[in-house]
Amino acid sequence: MEDLEIWQSVEALGRMRAQAAFQELLCRILEDGQAPNTEGDSNLSVKRTMDYLEQFSHLPMTIEELAEMAGMSRYYYMRSFKQLNGVSVMDYLSELRINQAKVLMENPRMKLRDIAKQVGYQDEYYFIRKFKQQVGIPPATYMKNKQRKVAAYSFPNIGQLLALKIVPFAAPMDHYWTDMYRRKYQYDIVTPLSHDYDFNRQALQASKPDYILGIDHFIPAEEQEKLQEVAPAFFVPWLSNDWRTHLRLIAQFLGIEDVAEIWLEDYARKVAKVREHVNDVFKDDTVLIVQISEEHIYVYGERSIASVLYQDLGIKIPKGIGASTSHTLVTLEELADCDAERLMVMFTNGNSTQENWERLKKNNAWNELKAVRNQAVTCISPWLWFEYSAYTQERFLKEVATIMKA
């Protein structure tokens, strides 16, 4: 209670500082000349509001106030913010608040209701819902599982552990496709890992994990033996099993088989609910997931998020797409040979969605694709990449459900 009283005593001062920062931002915009009129100006204005959010995330604020700070309309500010950060303004604010809550949870004397108020949530139960939405598990489970130090040596291990309600304390954070994990769990990954075996081993020796998880296909046998000397280790048999078996094997190693089965039963219920409407939307069409990077085009096979479509929802797979592949590099001509009636496209080249569409419209080979001619192309989230884990399967299932409702 003492911590909350201290916080309440400085709340008024914090509000005054926030108001001062707000006025200072408005003055800067006026001094700089009016509203931003170039992309660079827009980014600078958005970054100023981000500085404000980081400093005063615990205070009430609206998108209208933030847009005013940036000198933009509400709509233009929201669009500019998401283009710059990959997440909406309010999701970004939630992440700041939840990350601050994680820091406060290190203090065993603080109660959840006090933590909730200190980071900006007056309703404890709303805070619990937001925490679960952001982290994937309720705060009480999070605090309990933090006592178990599990290292996710290979990047798919992160998504496998999250499904088991465990946030790893060590994990690789230097992959392009781990941006989402890095943003959500930057305060949890106290031991960042990399591509360097010696660096990783020394980091783990120093941090003393309770368990190490890895992928056998990604780590040489000699290195696996060295890691087993650091802590009890399990290397998921990658190629010989699907993602469900991966999850069960990890749960068995950690002694939490019941957690895996509960998660899988819940996932099956979600699949059944979405599958009820598949025929209404996709009918008998073939659907293909396509990733477009700066220089390459990839199509996704069943050992990727595409297994949600082909295995779980029973959607038809286009010809030439291998059941045992994760992704395949193709040309536009080879993409045409797949003859897919629908495309789900993710852009991973750093350009805005609008810029990518405009560029593709100028490409005759793209315009001749069956799905493009039928106006059956949907843009999907780019963060999923190649990961094949329980967590990404569930995330993509949610995205497919959203697409079907559109």
What labels describe this entry?
single chain; 406 residues; alpha/beta; Arc Repressor Mutant, subunit A; Rossmann fold; 3 domains; five-stranded mixed sheet; three-stranded parallel sheet; 21 helices; disordered N terminus
Architecture per CATH nomenclature, i.e. the level-2 architecture of the largest domain: Orthogonal Bundle
Cα-atom radius of gyration: 23 Å
Please report which band the strand proportion falls in: under 5%, 5-15%, 15-25%, 25-35%, 35-45% or over 45%: 5-15%
Count of alpha/pi helices = 21
Fold-level CATH name of the largest domain: Arc Repressor Mutant, subunit A
Characterize the biggest β-sheet. Answer: 5 strands, mixed
Global structural class: alpha/beta
Stretches where pLDDT is under 50 for at least 5 consecutive residues are 1-11, 29-35
The strand count comes to: 10
- Which CATH class of the largest domain is shown? Mainly Alpha
Helix content: 55-70%
Which strands sit side by side, in order, in the main sheet?
A: 8-7-6-9-10
Query: What's the average pLDDT?
Result: 86
Shape: globular
